[in-house]
Design a protein that fits this description.
The chain is α+β, with helices and mostly antiparallel strands. Helix content is about 25%, strand content about 25%. The protein has eight helices and 18 strands. The chain has a six-stranded mixed beta sheet, covered by helices on one side. It starts with 19 loop residues before the first strand and ends in a 13-residue tail after the last strand. Its EC number is 1.14.11.-.
Length: about 325
Amino acid sequence: MPSSSLAAPLDVELRPDKPAMLRVDPPQDAAAWAAEYREALRAQVTEHGALLVRGLGLKDVDQVGAVFARLAGELLPEREAFAPREAHGAGLYSSTPWPANQPMCMHHELSYPLQVPGLLLLACLTAPEDGGATAVADAAEVLDALPAELTERFEQEGWLLTRTYNDEIGASLAESFGTDDRDAIERYCRANAIDVRRQGDGSLHTEQRRCAVVRHPLTGRRCWFNQIAFLNEWTLAPEVREYLVDEYGADGLPFNTRYGDGSPIPEDVVQRINTVYEQHTRREPWQAGDLMLVDNIGTAHSREPFTGERRVLVGMAEPRRLTDSGPTGEASGR
């Protein structure tokens, strides 16, 4: 038996406005503990959407990698990333670099590839002085709380992610696709329902239409599953948006989202989505050594502004090819 002592098997705390939490005494071998409790932990994640495990005492990259492997098996390589991450081994990454004073609003990790990660694993090696929580929100509750006229249009049309790759902002072609060979990238795009074109200045522009609402493969719940607000221009800080529009033009932003028919999404719609997310947010500040497991389809997550150093490692697992990944029931580009 592991050295962790629990009042009862997985005695999970459920508290208002906070993610489910499991407190454990530090085990002698965190990876062995994770292997023993794997099925019980995964069941709690399916039930509650996210689970924060406090007390494991995770301290270094190798230990985190071993724990992630026991819980999820093989980790997924990141494809179609919008920002570069530092890799710490196969499928183990730093958290997305993002200005500490700016929030990363609620989203589902990599909701736009045809094959999405069903499970997100996070481990905190260094907790920030203040803020920086990875907050979560139930995607089915968010869907129910959004105005029907908003969700109906997105459910009917889907949402469009547009990207223009450059050498200055966001992930490079090699960081996003694993290669900078244009022919290989275009083959990948054709195979993954992504429209791609080369622009006059030599840059690559892509568009992909995806479903905004999906049915959870395990629970059957209908979920608001997308990155419509997070990757939209109106979620950027005003001065950042103004700079990017001046530098690249309204149609050449490094990333943006639109209605499925290509129409711009108004600022008030984006604000409404983010407001509903905030109303359903559950947050708990990180402590060094914490582990968090997130059902990436049933639960959105965010990163709040922070001060001080923050070091969180990320892994993705359980690839899911959702049958309703395109608005018409089939994966589709435009």
